[in-house]
Amino acid sequence: MLDRCGLLAFARCCCVGGGEMESDARVSDEPGCGGGGGAGSVVEKGGGVVARRFGWAEIESVTGGFSSRVIGQGGFSTVYLASLTSSRLGAVKVQRSSERLHRAFCQERDVLLSLRHPHVVRLLGYCDERDEGVLVFEYAPNGDLHERLHHRSGGKSRTVLPWARRMAVAFQVAMALEYLHESRDPAVIHGDIKSSNVLLDANHDAKLCDFGFAHVGFSAAVRPPSGATRASGRPVMGSPGYADPHFLRSGVATKKSDVYSFGVLLLELVTGREAICAQTGHRLTAAVGPSIGEGKLADVVDRRLGGDYDVEEAATVAALALRCVSDGTGLRPSMAEVVRELQEKTTALISAVGSKPSDKMVS
């Protein structure tokens, strides 16, 4: 039976806007995007197959004719559950038809084709035969981190996410961001790090998704999201509670913008609280920062854990999170430093994820 939690999570990750992308992958026959080849052809990078180019008839077939399999709707796209084979599911994101959105589709597709990492959601294929661009992703059956952490699963009772798994997920997302920032040339700025953009696969390992607001390069000048919404017809960057204050002031997104958002995600994992309190509207950083700074860790660690966590690890991760959310970008660590510190000073996450340095990046 299909997991509704997983479907809704993938829908949220896929219903996104667009950013400015570049790619070193070779793309076949692009109406409006350039290239050569036809439906059924493959995209190659470094001599290896990266993704498949689907025909429109194939997309109709795997989605059941775009009828009863809608699993998500966004301002820019609709997401359908796809039966890719008799034993493999996928998520198919269909962009709304417009010239601007088709350009955004080409850009998002190209950056996804250039990425290969065990903790970045995999693009399986695409279709560009019509104005509506289509992206086909791997399916993550255990939903997203936000609903898993905050029990938002359509009324389904779920156990508390254990400390070791939280640390494993933090480490995996950190490795994915280190890959984007340090192993890509030019670097990729994700632009929308948050718990709902972290999918959990069959093993509850993290898969970073939603590259619709990504930007390529050391920094990118983009319009801050004040007064705009994702449904307004123009893409914005960042999410409430996670967006870098420096970006909101300057309109310049950098790798340190991702670091800030990752710091909020770390605080979310430690405390079990959401980035913005629904009742008070207070930001998580402001709510727990003073207590962490004063060493009052027991006041902020998720009480649902029942004390079942490593106090030293929690202190390390909480302190690291505060550095990540420093107001001055120069005070924030790089993602390479974050990965190194997590790897050196925590043990639960290493035993849970079983990752070695060689597992960090796949070209």
Describe the 3D structure.
- This protein is of the alpha+beta class and 363 residues long.
- It has 2 domains: 4-138, 2-Layer Sandwich (Phosphorylase Kinase, domain 1); 145-359, Orthogonal Bundle (Transferase(Phosphotransferase), domain 1), CATH 1.10.510.10.
- The chain contains 11 helices and 13 strands.
- It has helices spanning 4-14, 56-62, 99-113, 145-150, 163-183, 245-250, 255-271, 284-293, 311-324, 335-345, 348-353; strands at residues 42-45, 48-53, 70-73, 77-83, 89-95, 123-127, 134-138, 188-189, 198-200, 206-208, 215-216, 219-221, 252-254.
- A 7-stranded mixed beta sheet has the order 1-2-6-7-5-4-3, sandwiched between helices. A two-stranded antiparallel ribbon has the order 8-11. Strands 9-10 form a two-stranded antiparallel sheet.
- Strand 4 (77-83) and strand 5 (89-95) form a beta hairpin.
- Helix 8 packs across helix 9 (311-324).
- The chain is globular and about 60 Å long.
- 49% of the residues are buried.
- Residues 16-32, 227-235 and 356-363 have low confidence and may be disordered.
Key attributes of the depicted protein:
single chain; 363 residues; alpha+beta; Phosphorylase Kinase, domain 1; Transferase(Phosphotransferase), domain 1; seven-stranded mixed β-sheet; two-stranded antiparallel ribbon; 13 strands; 34% helix; disordered C terminus
